[in-house]
Amino acid sequence: MRAKSIRTRSFSFRKFRLAGFEIGLFLLILVYLFPFYIMITQAFKTAPETLHYPLRLPSTLYWDNIVQVWNLMKFDKVLWNTFYLTFLSVVGIAIVSGMCSFAIARRNTRGYGILYYAIVCGLLIPFYMTLSPLIKLMKDLNLMDNLTGLALAYVGRGIPFTVFLYVGFIRNIPGEIAESAVMDGCSPNRLYWSIYFPMLKHITSTSIILNALWIWNDFLFPLLTLHLPDKRTIPLAQYVFYGSYGTQWNLAFASYLLSMLPLVAAYFFLQKNIVEGIAAGAVKG
């Protein structure tokens, strides 16, 4: 009887602990989702309702906010600018970093080791320390107010982190694959693009997603390099809703909602690759 009572108390304690854990997770989810609730509800309120009743649901869905934001931001134009800049940057980062990492990982010589550490040291240098000389360099090369020039700068900034990811992944691929291909007469160029690159799709997807999120949402660098109105990206165009004497919160939140939709759509489109990339990285790690 005593042993049965002890088992019953132990089982009750485990149930109580599990219930507490689930309640804690539920509260954490609510905290995480609260900003999204604020953004979505505020985006469909009138300006007075936004100021006086910020936590309430909108009395009616005020779709005119979306229309105003689209027109004021010239959203189709800034969306294309942001997409072009992000696409060009992440593709450039993936191509350059992948080929560089392949050479470093497959040639374990002292020179390539020094090159690897020199590249990765770029992660240790704060961006703000390089900002002034980088802007000066872009001015000297006539790359200001140029989306392609800004994409080149992003490629340079993104290479250290992406090379760090690629080298660790490539080094875990069995070397016998490369040796067999070389014995069959495969050139280094074909070895990378035909054999190695298909095996890197998971880490490539992961690096593209991480770099795309950073470049899509970046504000400071475009602010300092893109001054023409027709070259603005989405974060720069959103700045129009903030003023010295007031902020149009309903329009600002509507702009956040519009700018988030392409990323949400891309996430659902690439969801399988995201999960596989994270899982593959965990196994390879």
Textual characterization of the structure:
The protein is mainly alpha-helical. It has 2 domains: 42 residues; 217 residues, MetI-like fold, CATH 1.10.3720.10. Helix content is 78%, strand content 0%. It contains 14 helices and no strands. Helix 3 packs across helix 13. The chain is globular and about 70 Å long. The two termini are 50 Å apart.
Quick recap of the structure?
InterPro entries: MetI-like, MetI-like_sf. This protein has 2 domains: 2-43; 68-284, MetI-like fold, CATH 1.10.3720.10. 78% of the residues lie in helices and 0% in strands.
SS elements, strand count: 0
Shape designation: globular
Helix content: over 70%
**CATH top level class name of the largest domain:** Mainly Alpha
CATH superfamily (homologous) name of the largest domain: MetI-like
How many domains is the backbone divided into?
Answer: 2
Structural class: mainly alpha
Per the CATH scheme, the topology name of the largest domain is: MetI-like fold
* Number of alpha- plus pi-helical segments: 14
Mean pLDDT: 83
Low-pLDDT runs of 5+ residues are 281-285
Proper CATH architecture of the largest domain: Orthogonal Bundle
Distance between the termini: 50 Å
Strand content: under 5%
What's the order of the H and E elements?
HHHHHHHHHHHHHH
Largest sheet: none
Rg, nearest Å: 25 Å
